[in-house]
Fold:
Amino acid sequence: MFLKGARCFSAKCPIEKNGGTPPGVHGSRSGFRQSAFAKQLREKQKTKRLYSLSETQFKNYFTKAKKEKGIVGEVLLRFLEMRLDNCVYRLGLVPSRLSARQMISHGYVLVNNKKVTIPSFMVGLGDQISLSEKALKMEKNKYALAKKEKPPSWLERKGFLGRVVSLPERDQMPIEINESLIVEYYSR
Structure:
C-alpha cells in the first residue's frame, strides 16, 4: 500500500524501473543541471506537500519562524512537526497524514480529552492526544495501531494514547528535508 508522499519502492514504479530516470519525453535529458532557485523551489514544494499545506499556510509558518529565537529552518520544521495532524500521524494512530487530517476534521481526535477539529492546531508540551471511542472501532485505525511502530523520541505512546514529552530537535525529526534551501528561497 503506497500513500501519497511516500516513496515508491515497487518494481512497477516508473522511476525505479528506468534506473532513476523520471518518466516523460524530457526525463532522460543528460547533463541537465538545476539552478539554485530550482533546487530551493523544489525543496519548498516538497516540504509543503509532505505536510499538506497551502502556500499561504506555509509562508505564514515561515514568517512566524523568522520572529522566533533560534535557527529559522529548525524552528520552521519544529512548527510543522508540532501540528496536530502530524503528531497524530507520528504517534502511529493513523496510517497517513491525510488520514490524520480527515480524522481530526471529523472530530475523532481528542487533545487533553477535548475534541479538536482543526488539523493545524499547535500541540503543546505535555498535551495528551487520543482517538475517540468511535475512531478506535474503525478498521484502518486498528491496523495502524497494531503495527506497533515506535514514535519519535519527543513523543510517547501507550496503546491509543499519545503524549508530547519534549519539543522536537532537528536530529529527532525523521524527515529528509534541507531546511536551509527553504530559508534561502524566502530570503531572496
Summary: Residues 83-166 form a domain with the Structural Genomics Hypothetical 15.5 Kd Protein In mrcA-pckA Intergenic Region; Chain A fold (CATH 3.10.290.10).
